[in-house]
Structures are given as C-alpha cells and as structure tokens.
Specification:
By secondary structure, this protein is mainly alpha-helical. The protein contains 13 helices and three strands, in the order αααβββαααααααααα. Helix 6 runs parallel beside helix 8, helix 8 packs antiparallel against helix 9 and helix 11 runs parallel beside helix 13.
C-alpha cells in the first residue's frame, strides 16, 4: 500500500472546481426525495417531524464491549469544557447555540468526544445529564449540532459509549435514531470534501448497532460511501491536504475493524481486510509532516488522538504496523 505514503503531489486534486463537481456527484447519488420536498416546498416542519413518527429499530446483540482509543478529556467540570485552549461553562441551553463562542468550539461541544475519552467512567453522571440536556436543547434539524461534521461524530460517540457503558436510555436511543435518519436524508445535500468518511462511518455504526430492515439500509449506504471515500485517488488527495486528516482516518479505520469484532461476520471479510490494509501503512508514517493545504484549512477541526495512542489501539486489535 505504498501508494498512500507519497501524497503531497496530489494535494492540488481538491481545487474549487473539483470540489464542486464531487459535491454535485454525491448529491445525485445519495439525495433522498424527502430532502428535496422538505427544503423546496416550504414544508420544513412536516419534513422534520417525520423523523419522530417511524418506529425505532431494535438493538442488535453485541458480542463484546467497546474498547476506546486513548484520548485527552475535554470535559473539565459538570458543565465546563476545554477546546483549543479555551475553557467555557455551559450554564444554560443557550450555550449550545451561542455564536460568539465560535464555530469550531461549538462543533466540538456538540460532538461529545468526552464520552470516549480517558477516565470517562468517572464522569458518567456528567455525561448522562449532558446527553439529556442536548436532546432537550437541540430540536431535530436546528442549529450547529445537526450539521454533518458534529452530527456524524456524535452518532458514533453515542454508540461507542452505549456499547461500553450502556449509557443511553430509551429516550436517548430514540433520539439517536432521529439523528441517523436525519443524516441519511441529508446525505446527498450536505456532502463536503472532508465529510464522506465520517458520514459513511456513522451510518455503518448505526446499521450495526440497530437491527432490522432500516438498519440494514443504513449499513449498505455506509459501506457504499466508505468504498468511494477510501478509494486511492480520493484518499491520497486528502492525505496531501492535511496531516490531521491522516490521524482522523487512521482512527476511523481502526474503529471499523473493532466494529467487526463487536458484531462478528456482519460487515464482510473483504471489507474488514481492506480497512486493515489501509490502516497499517498510515500507522507507520511519521507522526508529524509539513503537508501542503489544498484549499486552505478544513472548515471544522476536532482534537484527534496522538500517534502513539493510535499505535497502542492498533496493537490491542492485533494490528502491528511495519517498521
């Protein structure tokens, strides 16, 4: 898989024109009729209400608990958070949508990374209350928390948290289904350069976590998105644009491998083997590189695990990168 290691020459791939064409292609392939009806015909309230009207899928039996990758906590108090060197207190529900705090800070707040951070068990009660507060304060489809970046990340984090600590109650699981339905319906309309892998991963996680026909459809769509997003040309381009993307994609790939361990035989041997083959050379790459940015910085930044934490995570999964 050495074709992944020399990526800088591909960084120009994501020109403004190419991004526009690629986004248009995603829209044609994955847009849902309800997305167009809800947005074009002025029936937004009816469109959003649909997500609560369909019966919630049942949970699939998990063969193992989730094992987290080491990550620095971001929750420093019952309602206090630390992102990008700035600590703020979520004193009331308005904080979820408080624009002066900045777009990136709010996206991290809505992502719930602390649920899967180090020593999360000691903050379990904080997390329970935070999930409940988020559900109350964030109506479907409204606000930063429903944009694709934080939405995709939160779906995965809530599922990991429940697989390890059974943290979601019935209300939380029902709201999780609403989030997944919203992500799926908006998939074709909101795709961006850095987004497909996260969205595909979120749909795949949800399709494994839940059982039934709807969950199977999420799983098929998630696999389809990932197959495209992890193609060599697409992946090389993104690796050339940002070193942070490499770190994020390694964790994504390792998470997908672990998902197969939690739900054995569900995802397919060929798919899992491909994820392993992609992850190993990326793990062996240097932790810091001065990669050029293709079109400026990514629109949203998240704190990713350190390289040493990812290698330890891979070792727990039985994967050892080449020296």
């Amino acid at each position: 898989m050495s074709y992944l290691t020399d990526s800088s020459k591909f960084s120009g791939f994501w020109s403004a024109r190419t991004q526009g064409l690629h986004r248009f292609w995603w829209g044609l392939r994955y847009a849902q009729p309800m997305t167009l009806l809800g947005g074009r015909l002025g029936r937004k309230d009816e469109y959003l209400a649909w997500f609560n009207t369909v019966e919630t899928p049942v949970l699939r039996h998990a063969a193992a608990r989730w094992s987290f990758c080491q990550r620095t906590p971001s929750m420093v108090g019952a309602q206090a958070f630390h992102f990008f060197g700035v600590e703020r207190v979520l004193s009331d529900n308005r904080g979820w949508h408080w624009r002066p705090w900045g777009e990136n800070w709010l996206h991290n707040l809505h992502a719930f990374d602390d649920l899967v951070a180090d020593d999360a068990q000691g903050r379990f009660e904080w997390h329970e209350k935070l999930v409940t507060n988020w559900i109350v304060a964030n109506a479907p489809g409204k606000g930063v928390g429903w944009r694709p970046y934080s939405l995709s990340r939160r779906i995965v984090n809530w599922i990991k948290w429940d697989l390890d600590k059974q943290g979601l109650n019935e209300v939380g699981r029902r709201n999780l289904v609403v989030q997944v339905r919203f992500l799926r319906q908006r998939l074709g309309a909101s795709m961006t350069a850095a987004y497909p892998t996260k969205a595909g991963k979120a749909l795949l996680f949800a399709g494994a976590f839940f059982d039934g026909g709807e969950a199977a459809a999420w799983r098929r769509t998630g696999l389809s998105v990932l197959r495209t997003a992890l193609k060599p040309g697409y992946l090389r381009a993104r690796l050339g644009a940002s070193d942070g993307y490499r770190t994020a994609i390694v964790e994504d790939l390792l998470d997908l491998v672990q998902l197969d361990r939690v739900y054995p035989g569900l995802l397919g041997r060929d798919e899992v083997g491909r994820w392993q083959e992609l992850a190993l050379p990326l793990l062996a790459m240097d932790g810091e590189r001065n990669a050029p940015a293709a079109d400026g910085p990514e629109p949203v930044f998240f704190a990713e695990p350190k390289a040493v934490a990812l290698r330890q995570y891979a070792q727990r999964l039985g994967l050892t990168p080449a020296a």
